[in-house]
Design a protein that fits this description.
The chain has two helices and 17 strands. The chain is of the alpha+beta class. The strands form seven sheets. Strands 5, 6, 9 and 13 form a four-stranded antiparallel sheet that branches. A hairpin with a 5-residue loop joins strand 14 and strand 15. The radius of gyration is 26 Å and the shape is elongated. The two termini are 20 Å apart.
Length: 246
């Protein structure tokens, strides 16, 4: 009897955790450059003095889906979409280097190139500053050029180059802030083969239809676990009645 209770309760608990992950993915179906989080159930046997006849269910976060999302043309000069593999290096709030696929950039009041969330974009030689009255153009290799708008147009002035990296996917881990970092904690080396497309953004790789189907399936699995617990309660009540009669 107790085996049924522990197995069903642990299964229900981890179904709720996976439901939360699926809901988070679905909520970010419209987030720029978002990478879906992947989960998987696995059975863990309970080892004790008796025979190992019990097994708990554990929800394991096995990583992220690194497949590319759809490109959306915006025509905005500070919007970047990474072509194929690669990441944009930014400075996170704790000062460490982190990586994102969200190429929606902006200039703050001091002319520093930042993400829309206010994180500083990392350059090959440090943060990138843009002078006032300058039109920004970003080349495919991440080079940031500025063309003065208050004088006669001339050749662009190189202001810096965005640090683009492409570390192995197996070496990356998602942080609580949604940014990716290397498991080693060290900064990744710049990769000259990573290219970007100006005036476009990469959408989320989350499929709303697949996420909704997964949520429906998890809801049915949760109902099954609850039915098992009700059966265990019913069996315990009947056993109590039989013992009372005897």
């Amino acid at each position: 009897m107790d085996r049924l209770i522990y197995t069903a309760s642990s299964g229900a608990k981890h179904i709720l955790e996976r439901q939360a992950t699926t809901a988070n993915n679905l909520a970010n179906a419209g987030s720029t450059g978002f990478r879906a989080q992947l989960d998987s159930f696995r059975a863990v046997p309970v080892v004790g003095a008796a025979l190992p006849t019990r097994a708990f269910v554990v929800d394991s976060t096995i990583g992220s889906d690194f497949s590319a999302g759809p490109l959306q043309q915006t025509g905005r000069s500070l919007d970047l979409a990474l072509q194929n593999q690669g990441w944009i290096a930014v400075q996170s709030n704790d000062g460490s280097e982190a990586y994102t696929r969200n190429g929606a950039l902006k200039l703050n009041e001091n002319g520093m190139l930042q993400t829309q969330s206010g994180l500083m974009v990392a350059g090959d030689t440090g943060p990138i500053a843009v002078p006032p009255e300058v039109h920004v153009a970003i080349a495919s290799d991440g080079t940031v050029g500025g063309i003065s708008t208050d004088t006669k147009p001339g050749p662009a002035t190189v202001l810096g180059r965005i640090k683009l990296v492409n570390p192995p996917e197996s070496a990356m881990v998602r942080g609580d802030d949604g940014l990716f970092r290397l498991k080693s904690g060290l900064p990744a080396d710049a990769d000259l083969n990573v290219t970007v497309a100006e005036g476009a953004l990469e959408g989320s790789n989350v499929s709303p239809v697949d996420s909704m189907v997964t949520m429906i399936g998890l809801a049915r699995q949760f109902e099954t676990q609850m039915s098992l617990l009700k059966n265990a309660e019913s069996n315990a009540a009947k056993a109590t009645q039989l013992l009372a009669l005897s």
